[in-house]
Design brief:
mainly beta, Immunoglobulin-like, Maltoporin, Chain A, 22-stranded antiparallel β-barrel, five-stranded mixed β-sheet, 55% strand, disordered N terminus
């Protein structure tokens, strides 16, 4: 491997000293008038600029080669075009006026195309839009994306569900590397703050070809905020207040870029008390989160790199029953104390017509769980100041509280891809990905043992552009070994492939068909658990003989679009061999029910359908409606657990722009969730409910600087409801009631 890298770097030397510029004008295609403040961006180089008052732009210090340039601005169709450097003269980009929202480059797929050019259907939402809708956390916000839900424990703990699959079946990527933070547990949250995250992309379906094991159900890809444009600096600070929890989130950031060097940093603090319902506050749903992100970048001639670091510290209460009613923010027992470090580097070497991407990640997760025990009588003082009879805490002689469960997970992962020179209609990528991981226990209790996991996978994928269709295909082989100290030694192998096609079957109708296989190796909890999992109140027993989960999914997407109306329909059918799930045995150990990990074949099917109307001449008015459904069953036709209920979303959105309000908006949304009667034998049914939300916001000038204001309200009718994916459902505890939020961000 070292020799391979050295040869590639030597090949780069002859052309490493050539630098070029891209300059031109962006105009309105119908009037030929220049367009001011249009964004011009080269995604492969991660460099860009903005047109001036004459519609002119210049981007300097670019290497020789062929690159995609993307031009976008509100009110026009986003343009994506290949250009070859050097250019002999400035280029003119003419944009078509359109009321359709701007398109963005999709980063989670390997060829970095606009969604309209992508063979694979990917959902993308900006974090600012999710926050403007009143989301309290990132895990809360992603449930507004079609086909995505969240398994929640209160409002502080949530993990993504994509078309009915969650936990280790959904892979999370942050800063360009896979996030590893003991995500096997139902009550283990996402572990990422929304501060410093620019957008979220969701691949709905098997993505093992691109990402290996654990991407069997899909990928949640978090794009960090971009660096400042060359030779510029930006700073901002702001915060949100939430009436329901009397909570707040604050953050501040600064970024600056020169010709070659760039850096940024952002810090945030979030605190919430127990959330309120129509009848009570839900005891111990309080939490505190501190987050710091920093980045450094360098680009010179034929090489660019960026290094990012994120440390996130969270103290999360684990609710069990309704008890103390207060607005205190310090969690009671039991609670989690988690610190997560992510250090990543993302580098690219550019050759004349090819490039080499090298992404590396170091992750360190320190998970501490403090809990109550009821072994013997007596009174012990609770951390919140209360006394509870019959509780034993993990304390030393000086009264210091110690974690009952402490696990440290250290992970190194790598992702190396070579973009071959374009050969006719073919764009091809070959690569190698892998991971080395070590889990170590330090607490008095042990849920999963000390163990080492090693992954390696090799892949090849091609995008073929024909005149009337685009085809994408690929294949991959993976190997995973799991070695448990004084225990099992397992090896898992899997070969997977994918093929997809996108074509315009009529003038304004686009079809996408994707066939893909995926796999997931059993995780440590499923293989080796032997103990009480306090967060779930069950004694879990693993199965060392579990086999790979292997799936095959068919996706069909149809889209119709004209200037003022869009209609889409997405359908999928997913079969999973050796689906792993946990089932009760009917036995008890220490008065705790025993659950075993078992396997069976399963299938999931469903999809999403919806439309978007922005009628002429009322281009400022947007009417959107979407319906999503998923059904999950085992081979014997019994239903799978934790399958989200069918939902219908209706939104009226208006754009408001005048002299004193820029980028203004207002919306009203009615989200209708239907009854969930298709439940597993270990679940109860869930009733239907309707949630009404509304908001308004925009940008105003304050002391000649921009101030963004967002005001929103969720569950405006204060509905008392229980979501089927709430882990508090078994206790009959309601989800969050009416909540108003005020967000302010000031740009310096």
């Amino acid at each position: 491997m070292k020799l391979f890298f050295n040869v590639l770097l030597l090949l780069a030397i002859p052309s490493i000293y050539a630098q070029h510029s891209l300059s031109g004008t962006v105009t309105d295609k119908t009037t030929n008038e220049p367009i001011v403040f249009a964004n011009v961006y080269l995604p492969q180089l991660e460099k860009g600029g903005t047109t001036n008052e004459h519609g002119v732009f210049t981007i300097n210090n670019l290497p020789k080669g062929t690159y995609k340039v993307v031009i976008s601005i509100i009110g026009y169709e986003t343009l994506s075009q290949n250009i070859s450097l050097p250019l002999n003269e400035p280029i003119v980009f003419a944009l078509n006026p359109s009321a359709i929202e701007m398109e963005e480059v999709i980063v989670s797929t390997p060829f970095h195309k606009l969604q309209s050019d992508n063979v694979m259907k990917v959902e993308r939402e900006s974090v600012s839009d999710l926050k403007s809708k009143g989301s309290v956390t990132l895990a809360d916000g992603i449930s507004n994306i079609a086909g995505v839900e969240s398994v929640t424990t209160g409002i502080g703990i949530g993990k993504p569900v994509i078309r009915g699959l969650s936990s280790n079946r959904v892979l999370v990527y942050t800063q360009g590397v896979r996030l590893e933070n003991q995500q096997f547990g139902d009550e283990h949250g996402l572990g990422v703050s929304n501060a410093g995250i620019e957008s979220v992309e969701v691949i709905k379906g098997p993505a093992s070809l691109l990402y290996g094991s654990d991407a069997l159900g899909g990928v949640l890809y978090l794009n960090p905020e971009k660096f400042a444009e060359a030779n510029s600096s930006k700073a901002d600070f702001g915060g949100n207040y939430f009436t329901n929890t009397q909570g707040y989130s604050t953050n501040a950031g600064f970024k600056s870029s020169g010709d070659k060097f760039k850096f940024l940093f952002r810090g945030s603090l979030t605190e919430h008390s127990d959330y309120d319902t129509q009848d009570y506050r839900v005891t111990n749903t309080r939490f505190r989160e501190q987050d710091f992100k920093a980045g450094f970048g360098f680009q010179d001639k034929k090489f660019k790199t960026e290094v990012r670091y994120n440390v996130n510290h969270s103290k999360l209460g684990i609710p069990e029953e309704i008890g103390e009613q207060s607005t205190a923010r310090t969690p009671l027992l039991p609670y989690q104390d988690i610190t997560n470090h992510v250090l990543s580097s993302k580098s690219t070497v550019f050759f004349d017509n090819s490039s080499l991407d090298i992404n590396l990640g170091l992750l360190y997760n320190d998970r501490n769980e403090f809990e109550e025990h009821h072994h013997h009588e007596g009174e012990e003082e609770h951390e919140g100041g209360e006394e509870h009879e019959g509780e034993e805490h993990h304390e030393d002689e000086e009264g210091e509280l110690h974690p009952a469960l402490q696990m440290k997970l250290k992970t190194f992962n790598y992702d190396v891809k070579y973009h071959l020179p374009k050969m006719g209609k073919f764009e091809t990528i070959v690569g190698v990905q892998g991971m080395s991981q070590r889990n170590t226990n330090y607490g008095e209790e042990q849920l999963i043992p000390d163990a080492t996991t090693n992954d390696i996978g090799v892949l090849a994928t091609s995008h073929i552009h024909f005149e009337k269709a685009d085809v994408q295909l690929g294949a991959r082989f993976d190997n995973r070994t799991i070695e448990v100290l004084d225990g099992i030694n397992r090896q898992f192998n899997s070969f997977n492939g994918a093929v997809g096609v996108k074509t315009d079957i009529f003038k304004q109708v686009t079809a996408r068909l994707n066939l893909a296989t995926g796999f997931r190796a059993p995780n440590l909890a499923e293989l080796t658990s032997d103990g009480t999992h306090e967060g779930t109140n069950r004694y879990e027993v693993g199965n060392a003989n579990l086999a790979n989960e292997q799936n095959f999914q068919t996706d069909l997407s149809l889209e119709y679009a004209n200037e003022h109306f869009e209609l889409f329909a997405n359908g999928f059918y997913n079969t999973i061999q050796n689906y792993i799930y946990i089932a009760p045995t009917g036995e008890e150990i220490d008065d705790t029910p025993v659950f075993n990990y078992v396997q069976n074949n399963a299938r999931l099917y469903g999809g999403e359908i919806g439309f978007h109307l922005h009628p002429h001449p009322l281009d400022w008015l947007h009417v959107e409606s979407s319906f999503e459904t998923v059904t999950g069953q085992q081979e014997d036709d019994s239903y799978l657990p934790l399958i989200p209920a069918n939902t219908l979303n209706n939104t009226i959105h208006v754009e408001l722009n005048n002299k004193w309000l820029q980028k203004g908006y207002a919306f009203v949304t009615l989200r209708s969730t239907f009854e969930q009667n298709n439940v597993s034998q270990f679940e109860t049914t869930t009733g239907a409910y309707d949630l009404l939300s509304a908001g308004i916001g925009g940008m105003v000038k304050l002391f000649k600087k921009d101030l963004a204001i967002a005001i929103s309200g969720t569950n405006l009718t204060d509905e008392a409801y229980i979501n089927h994916l709430s882990r508090l459902k078994s206790e009959g505890i309601f989800n969050i009631g009416r909540n108003f939020s005020l967000g302010l961000t000031y740009y310096l």
